[in-house]
Design a protein that fits this description.
Elements lengths: L5 H7 L3 H8 L1 H15 L26 E8 L4 H4 L4 H5 L7 H4 L23 E4 L4 E4 L3 H5 L4 E8 L5 H10 L9 H9 L9 E7 L26 E3 L17 H22 L2 H24 L6 H7 L9 H13 L4 E7 L10 H22 L6 E6 L3 E2 L17 E2 L3 E7 L6 E3 L1 E2 L6 E3 L2 E2 H11 L9 E3 L2 E3 L15
Parallel strand pairs: 1-7, 1-8, 4-12, 4-15, 5-6, 5-7
Antiparallel strand pairs: 2-3, 4-11, 8-11, 9-10, 13-14, 16-17
């Protein structure tokens, strides 16, 4: 028998892991080809931005092409902003009725709610617009666009503390590690923009607040999805993204040449191991190069009319403010970015309902309304879905001494709260669902967090039960094994 050569022996001794790793590179190489064409490595022509994503997605005609999520970290008080209850005002200072809180779990700051006193809304409510939606005087700008909004008055969630509740809202799980909504959208639908990330995050917090929340990276993480689908955070000071500027003496042409050479080396690794994260690395290097040109143009507000800047409010030209981020969200939407996630912290009014709560409203009200109006006047609201939501509400009963108004507060409340949305295939001027007479519990047409997620995906043309990813032996989805589309709010 002829002796085997070294190469044949190596094939026989190849491990199962190596076999699958090497055979997988065919798929990776195919995906890499389009990236190399765009970067100029495999060809001179750069094709138009492509629509990536999964075959067959969207599953049906979408109503919305993009999402702007205005996440209000800390839990805005629905009882003080949107959910007017005359009975709550009448019961101010009286003990909470036992039947409204029996068997319910509250945060450790409340413990047992027995004997807690009911707290009336701190400012008056009025019905707004033709729809007659109840909105507090705390939010005059939001009140002015009530006929453009769809209010969900019967939201409820499973989590009672901030980080688990925000994670639940954005990823469908209280424990960190699952893909977030923007990542699922990116994974399913792909991207139509070539020079900016398709999922961008910006954060802000009111100045001098004592109740800001931590912005954890898992709020925009891709979990077990390939890391190219995770959100890219834009900073609120200095360069929005670190290391975009070339060092002194380095030209754009030199950078182009280096990236092309690095891509060739990474391609060799991809063909050797078939690791999809190597393809992600190539794509991210190319994206960073494109962003060196696109981000400075994006953040230059000199082309914005003065009337538009004034509409967003006095902080709009201050990077890192909520107003600035709202204007940036509109500019990103114009440039084709599919998912922009704004997170504003400071709504955790345990002892500052009559002080810092006013600041929170002032810092977010005008800009939120301006974003909706700006999108509408540009003809973009019909296919842009705007959502304004906290992770939960606040207790209708007081936290603190009712005789000391400066220390009034409300604790976390997962059993009922209000979210509003606009555009993107919704019925405007609608208030859906309702709570009981004390704004304590959902009374009719409850909307669970998973229902909200299913509805958002539906508006994007995605069947929430069909968008899945296999991980650790099972198919995962954003809504886990729950969720129903709230068809009643759809136009």
């Amino acid at each position: 028998m002829t002796a085997m050569n070294f190469y044949e022996q190596q094939k026989l001794h190849s491990t199962r892991r190596e076999f699958f790793g090497r055979t997988a590179c065919g798929i990776g190489s195919a995906a890499l080809a389009s990236l190399l064409n765009r970067s100029g490595i495999a060809g001179e022509q750069r094709p138009e931005p492509r629509v990536g994503g999964l075959p067959g997605v969207p599953h049906f005609a979408p109503k919305a092409k993009r999402v702007i999520a205005l996440i209000q970290n800390g839990g805005p008080s629905h009882a003080d902003l949107f959910d007017w209850k005359p009975k709550l005002a009448q019961m101010h200072g009286q003990s909470v009725p036992e039947e409204f809180v029996a068997g319910k779990r509250f945060s450790t700051m409340t413990g047992k709610p027995d004997g807690k006193l009911m707290l009336a809304p701190i400012e008056p409510f009025h019905q707004r617009g033709n729809s007659g939606a109840w909105v507090s005087d705390m939010l005059p700008y939001t009140a002015s666009i009530a006929d453009e909004l769809t209010f969900l008055k019967s939201m409820h969630t499973d989590a009672v503390n901030h980080a688990p509740a925000i994670s639940f809202l954005l990823s469908g799980a209280q424990i960190p590690g699952r893909p977030t909504l923007g990542s699922w959208m990116n994974y399913g639908l792909g991207s139509e923009v070539d020079d900016l990330p398709n999922f961008i995050v910006m954060t802000s917090v009111s100045k001098n607040t004592t109740c800001g929340q931590i912005f954890y990276d898992f709020y925009w993480g891709s979990g077990f999805l390939p890391s190219k689908h995770q959100g890219v955070k834009f900073r609120g000071s200095g360069d929005p993204v670190l290391y975009l500027s070339n060092p002194t003496g380095i030209t754009r042409e030199m950078r182009r040449g280096w990236l092309d050479n690095i891509a060739r080396l990474n391609q060799m690794q991809l063909e050797e191991f078939g690791d999809p994260e190597i393809a992600t690395r190539i794509a991210q290097y190319e994206m960073a190069f494109q962003m060196q040109a696109s981000v400075p143009e994006l953040t230059d507000l000199s082309d914005e009319p003065r009337a538009i800047l004034e509409m967003y409010g006095p902080g709009v030209e201050e990077p890192g403010s909520f107003a600035h981020n709202c204007l940036m969200a509109r500019r990103l939407a114009e440039r084709g970015v599919s998912f922009t996630q704004l997170m504003h912290a400071g709504w955790d009014q345990h002892r500052s309902l009559t002080t810092e709560f006013y600041t929170q409203c002032k810092d977010t009200d005008q800009a939120s309304a301006a974003l909706v109006k700006d999108l509408k006047q540009r003809g973009m609201l019909d296919d842009t879905l705007v959502i304004w939501s906290g992770e939960f509400g606040r207790t209708p009963f007081i936290q603190g001494d009712i005789n000391n108004r400066k220390q009034w507060g409300r604790d976390h409340h997962p059993y009922a709260y209000t979210t509003w949305m606009a555009g993107g295939g919704l019925k405007p001027g609608l208030s859906y669902g309702e709570t009981d007479e004390l704004a304590m519990n959902v009374a009719n047409d409850g909307v669970h967090v998973h229902d909200l997620q299913a509805t958002l995906l539906h508006l994007l043309g995605i069947n929430h039960e069909a968008l899945t990813y296999r991980f650790q032996g099972r198919q995962f989805r954003l809504t886990d094994v729950h969720g129903r589309v709230v068809h009643e709010i759809l136009a």
